[in-house]
Here is the input.
Amino acid sequence: MSAFELIIVGVYAACALALSGYGLHRYQMTWLYLRTLERTPRAVSPGRSPTVTVQLPVFNERFVVERLIESAARLDWPDLEVQVLDDSTDETTAIARACVDRLRAEGVDIVLVRRSDRVGFKAGALEHGAAMARGEFLAVFDADFVPPSDFLRRVMPYFADDVGMVQARWGHLNEADSLLTRLQAVLLDGHFVIEHTARQRSGRWFNFNGTAGVWRASTIADAGGWQHDTLTEDLDLSYRAQLAGWRFVYLPDLVVPAELPPSMTAFKSQQHRWAKGSIQTLKKLRGPLLAQDMPARVRLEAFVHLTNNLAYPLVVLLTLLTPAAVWVRSRHVESALWFDLVVFTLATVGVGLFYACSQWAVHSDWRERLLRIPAVMALGIGMAVNQSKAVLEALAGHESPFIRTPKFGDAPQSYALAKNGLPLVEILFGLYHLVGMGWAISEGYWPSVPIQLLFAAGFLSVGLSSLQRKRELAGAA
Here is the structure.
């Protein structure tokens, strides 16, 4: 075996083992979830009813803004203030103003807050609103969320003296719309049902998800306030608050339904922002996390959480190397091809169990939902190019604006997103693996076939879906 061939096989093996490590972490999360099922958070005795300010950050949300404002105004709480934090540049403002005026005439304490600029984007809007809020507590809902009327009645009893934030679980308003929304629902269920529950109930840290949660105003101030030097201001503030000693509570049985991105381009935009922001938060807070006096398990989980998206560049590298590595090893050590099957099992079975457990935990039709899991894993792989771009931008310090995820309600999808050439790269990666899989089958190297099939399916589905959306937008224009 030549030196060049050794390098190919060595780098391939290193990438595969690293990804297996992330797969093993999913086993751990699933185990922690099952182990801590009985450790439900305890409510404190209901005493006074403090003032709660509901903050609704809005930017160009004409299709859903009225639904949002009306659902917030229906929240059942004795002393409630509603802030519509509107940075819009389209007709959203007129719709919001008419709704606010009507509700105020009905006796609702509600105000429309406009800024002269969009400094800090969502974080800036929340910071601006907090400066004039009456509330001792601040509830935040994004434009596509529809909180149930008893939301605050169910959340506020969990604010013990050391609790700084209480987070509810996201539901899915439009899950049945398409295969993509069905797969996104599974992805989010894994995060909200398994990860959040396992982390909180095992004494590890978890994060506010930007919406469907309530903050103690003094916690935000103690943690340094809303800051906008990352694209995930919610994740950043969450870690700073927990570094300051505040405890968070998660309520998996309290569900706030929301809208899933209905198109591949909208989904990619959302995921790009989340991935880039998590690496920015890692860079920003790695020093305090290393210096903080905390249990090793908490520190380790925090770093695994913040570095999860580093797996995507490894997937891209593995994509490039897998067919070549299979060819090299087939010429020299055929038995080494079984390494692919072992790695494939470690990396995928853990992920499959993780998502299967999330469906079993909260859905009565979980058996039918298990059929989605192979497609969920393919989608995760297919997103690797998009997410790797986000990770590399963050590592390089490349700044980019906060790009909202379009929300459409029941209206046509007319909010366009920026175009790029990533779909063509994704399609080429998919074709590359199809060729590699065909060669492996022809030569009888069966252990490499499952992983190449999964890669081919993932990249082709994501790339072709993205191109289809671009054609729709071009036709609409």
The first helix runs from residue 3 to 35. The chain has 17 helices and seven strands.
